[in-house]
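step 4 of 6: structure.
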Amino acid sequence: MNNKIERINEPIEASFQLLEGDFANAGAASSAMKRVLMDLGVDEDIIRRAAIAAFEAEMNVIIHGVAGSLHYIITRDHILITVTDMGPGIPNIELAMQEGYSTAPDWVREMGWGAGMGLPNIKKNSDEFNIDTVIGEGTTLEIKILLNDRGERR
Amino acid sequence: MITVAQVVESLGAQVAVKGDMERMVKGCYISDLLSDVMAKSKEGEIWITLQIHPNIVAVSVIKGLSAIILTNNRRPEEETAKRAEKEKMTILVFSGSTFEAAGKIYTLLSQ
């Protein structure tokens, strides 16, 4: 199998800055990550899931997060995406995880974002998903996707 | 299976940005909510929307969609077209409504 991932010795990592309101650059971090995964010969379905989860997390920072970063680290068996922001924090995670619940402003909704589907979509596409949030300080999402899980999705 | 080029022919659509015209169209998804497209569209589908801002390109690339169709003669914003060119994502402009576009594509896909 032409899969470079099994031959990497050192983890591959990168970080990207994210800024609230910077819709023009939405997807830049997740696209760059996607290209690296493609180059490593990772399974297409796994790449797609990682890119979707990363993109949704990027959008959350652009919509709510003031400023933050997306960092990914790829090892032989997983990719861990950590997205941290200095936004308002999430008062009720349970509510935020419900499809359809959103606190996005109207102008963001007019662009077709802020339908309250981001966090549930991240969860759906990740193998492990963790939210750490402090009101008034910010939010950190940890998204882990296994690289050797071929086709066995819930 | 149909291609993007066959959709262009069937709709008589204008090609605003030319990407891979031989790309297979595996289905169709219709929504102006980008969040919804992110969550529910499937790889290879062609996306019909009224949104024209640059994020439609990012969503299509991330989701692996086959092309974007803008209806009611809406044209992509300049930045949208630039991004689509860079990403080789096809954007079509259709003069009719979303309903007409959907009907024609449904017929094509059912043949």
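step 5 of 6: annotate
 - The beta strands of chain A are 12-19, 67-74, 78-85, 128-134, 138-146.
 - Residues 44-64 of chain A form the longest helix (21 residues).
step 6 of 6: archive
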